[in-house]
Amino acid sequence: MVQHELPDFTRASAGSPVRTCIGCRERALALDLLRVVVGESGPQGHILVPDPRRRLPGRGAWLHPDQACLSLAERRRAFGRALRVAGSVDSSEIEHWVRAERTRRAVPLEQNRHKHS
User: Fold this and answer.
1) Which N-terminal stretch is annotated as signal sequence (predicted)?
2) pLDDT in tens, 85-113
């Protein structure tokens, strides 16, 4: 009988869900990815909404919270396919969230702590 060795992230996270980023197509833990859902649909197309708490209803697509992955997903038109919607999609809210997340991560830890006298 042949035993196959599992990748490190699968072994380390037994029981944790693994998803594929629609931008770079790499598999990662769901905790490391941003879930995106369709918020509204109107005459101008579908508005995409970030779902960092993973609680919004509907079909979700997964994306690294990174500008490069967002650009790849937009260029490949991956949101429409992953979310199974036809027509144009507006990812401006996702772009805003990714930029804000990058700013939050850039704050040094010392500035993020409360100073007590």
Assistant:
1) none
2) 998 999 999 999 999 988 887 766 555 55
Q: Which stretches of the chain are assigned E, i.e. beta strand? A: 18-20, 27-29, 34-42, 45-50, 61-63, 89-90
DSSP annotation of 3 reads P
**Could you tell me what percentage of the chain is helix, strand and coil, using 3-state DSSP and rounding each to the nearest 5?**
35, 20, 40
Q: How many helices (H) and strands (E) does the chain have?
A: 5, 6
Amino acid, single-letter form, for residue 31: L
Strand-strand pairing, 89-90 and 45-50: parallel
User: How big is the CA angle at 21 (ends 57 and 17), to the nearest 5 degrees?
Assistant: 65
Residues in CB range of 66: below 8 A, 6 or more apart = 23, 98, 102
To which residue do tokens 């992955």 refer? Answer: 69
Closest residue by Cα to residue 51 from 19, 76, 24, 74: 19
- Read off the pTM: 0.76
